[in-house]
């Protein structure tokens, strides 16, 4: 951009936004959900592409809201149609194992009254799903995810976290 665009025109404003989009940092957004069963256990997904288990969810697509993302991901990967409830936490994640930093939006997905149907799982991503007591999640989750769940459970309101802990 050798010449400053005319910001008084729509074309000039769009040109400048394009310039900024090409140069400003881009941060990945992730949306995950806390889904419980009647016993109060949390659903954790055993993934095909990483060692640690994780909460249901995934990366937010361009132009998609985080709430829509978590609903889409649980529908695609687990065959469940759920509505994202309350936002439990916003968690900034520092770079981790080769991933750039990200912002994770954690939603309450409510309580599932029925059994899971493993035949509906998207097998290229989900090996299995497990109901796990909150006291046992640390042995299955990556440290940042375990910290995030503990912090969100203790928060009186939506928690803003950095690397799983209050700032």
TrEMBL record:
SUPFAM superfamilies assigned to the protein according to its UniProt record, in alphabetical order: Nudix
InterPro entries in the cross-refs: Nudix_hydrolase, NUDIX_hydrolase-like_dom_sf, NUDIX_hydrolase_CS, NUDIX_hydrolase_dom
PROSITE patterns the UniProt entry points to: NUDIX (PS51462), NUDIX_BOX (PS00893)
Residue stretches in coiled coil: none
Chain ranges of the Nudix hydrolase domain: 25-154
Family: Belongs to the Nudix hydrolase family.
PANTHER family: GDP-MANNOSE MANNOSYL HYDROLASE (PTHR43046)
Superkingdom per UniProt: Bacteria
Cofactor requirement: Mg(2+)
GO MF assignments: hydrolase activity
Listed Gene3D superfamilies: Nucleoside Triphosphate Pyrophosphohydrolase
Short name of any one Pfam family annotated for the protein: NUDIX
Name this protein carries in UniProt: Putative pyrophosphohydrolase
Keyword Hydrolase: yes
Keywords: Hydrolase, Magnesium
């Amino acid at each position: 951009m050798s010449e400053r665009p005319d910001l008084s025109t729509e074309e000039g404003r769009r040109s400048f936004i394009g310039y900024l989009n090409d140069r400003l940092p881009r941060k990945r957004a992730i949306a995950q959900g806390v889904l419980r069963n009647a016993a109060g256990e949390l659903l954790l997904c055993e993934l095909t592409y990483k060692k640690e288990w994780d909460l249901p969810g995934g990366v937010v697509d361009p132009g998609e809201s985080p709430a829509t993302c978590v609903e889409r991901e649980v529908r695609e990967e687990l065959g469940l149609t759920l509505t994202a409830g309350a936002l439990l936490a916003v968690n900034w994640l520092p770079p981790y194992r080769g991933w750039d930093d990200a912002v994770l939006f954690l939603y309450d997905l409510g309580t599932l009254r029925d059994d899971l149907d493993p035949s509906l799982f998207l097998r290229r991503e989900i090996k299995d799903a497990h109901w796990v007591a909150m006291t046992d999640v640390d042995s299955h989750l990556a440290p940042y995810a375990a910290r995030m769940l503990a912090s969100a459970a203790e928060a009186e309101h939506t928690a803003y976290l950095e690397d799983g802990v209050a700032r």
